[in-house]
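== Fold encoding ==
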Amino acid sequence: MTETPARSDVPELLRSLRRVARPATVGAVTAAAFHGLLAVAVAHLLAGAVDAVVFRGADVAAVAAPLLLLAGVALLRAGAAMASDRFAFAAGAAVRRDLFAHLFDHAVAAGPVRLATRPTGERAAVMIEAVAGAEPYWRQWLPSAARVTVVPLAVLAVVAPVDRLGFAILAASLPLLVWAMILVGKGAEVAHRRQWASLARLGGDLLDQIRGLGDLARLGASGRALASVHAAAVAFGRETMAVLRLAFLSALVLEFFATVSIAAIALAVGFRLMWGELDFATGFFVLLLAPEFYAPLRDLGVRRHARIESLTALGSIAEMLAEPVGAPSGTRRRNTEAPPALRFEGVRVVHADGRVALDHLDLEVAAGEHVAIVGASGAGKSTLFALVAGFVEPNHGRVLVDGVPLDELDRDLWLRNLVHLPQTPHLFEGTIADNVAMGRPPIGGDAEVAFAAVLRDAGADAFVGRLPEGRDTPVGERGVGLSGGEAQRLALARAFWTAGSLVLFDEPTSHLDAETERLVGEAIARLGVGRTVLTIAHRLATVATADRVVVLDRGRVVEAGRPADLAATDGHWARMLATAGEEGRA
């Protein structure tokens, strides 16, 4: 079985997002176009009213109706602008929700092993900054594109019958502005790509350095980390200034051409008024429309940077969505209460870098058996766990669960059947109860009774009872406020609450003091009753409680049997026991 590449590129992603945001986008575009068209009505009414009062001697009462109509049109135009903004905001929000859903579904389908191929900070930058950066395409660019499509053509249409010279100036200047916008935009697109790449590096580097701040301080490498973040920040600042230079240059060029064109129209209108070749109402009307003719073009030139930024961000999102994901989930269900029997038949797993993690592995685990997996670093222990969880598919061979291929089982139900206890459990910001239940209902239906039972089984009832607020005591992100042993016992309580029938231990007693290790070990023994248990073992005390020891070397099973039987032979396990350090590590 091989990985399934996820197909996604920017045009395809744009089409998908346009379908999602189509209702709100249509509303935003329609309102924006209507707002632009009303400018023609405002100019016509204002020019007529001023001409009537100044040149025809009409009193205020005579122009009251046109002025009221003008006020109504102005209010209607303001309402259209507000409606366009609200629709555009709704379209942007729909796009953000859909992108988050796409990225979340892709992350779930990829699994933690494939996600580890890209730095966590870089992924976070894409999921936060890129999603936010994609929104301006709908909030800014599309409404501006609608106005520039409708307003200049409408202005040309109404000016052509009344002022041919004004029409000629407007029509001749339009290609100049478009050419200037395209010319500057090409350089802006390259600068935006460089800026986004620099931002992704900065965000990824900063987040990774913060996550490892404790280790960096202990190793005395915090200075190098600071220098690395500083260099990334300086690079991002340099690329941002390049983008701003192009943005200001683009605005300057467009403003220059628009100002020169408006000045040319004003001169043409003024001279013809002086020569009597044009009446005031027509000249004022054309002069009022000239800024409205160029306003959408200038606005589009500014919003072009938003479009480039959005497409660059969408390119990063599409690149992440194109990463390989797991094979589609099966549909078969199994009895989740019975401990499963596992069988690995000729399993071979090769990572993307060509490294062979498991090499024709043959292994059988009986239902309810406790098997300890030992071996040197890189022997394939973690890959074996990822294989059982379904996060990695074998390139060759298969994994059977109760005689059924693992890839035929419903993946979500299978994952709910697993209990995983790592060396360092992850606790989230919330209460003790939140971190234990993780949003799942209690098995027996009575939450109070179930919570007390799992705390007692995990050996956590004593220290939780001493906390000021008991089960409602807040816990910081990554278990801030708790000791390592307390965090491990809360993770055990979470495992008891989950009540899965297959337990995966990744040496959960490492780095604990002797008394805490004893308490956690007793809780682990209780958790393993009536369940199939696989343990990645590094400490000899963990191996001693196993029914069987399996020794891996370069992805193959080189030895397997009961701990005492293997110790009596001159094999790999016996040599590992002989060379074990003072800490009792296998």
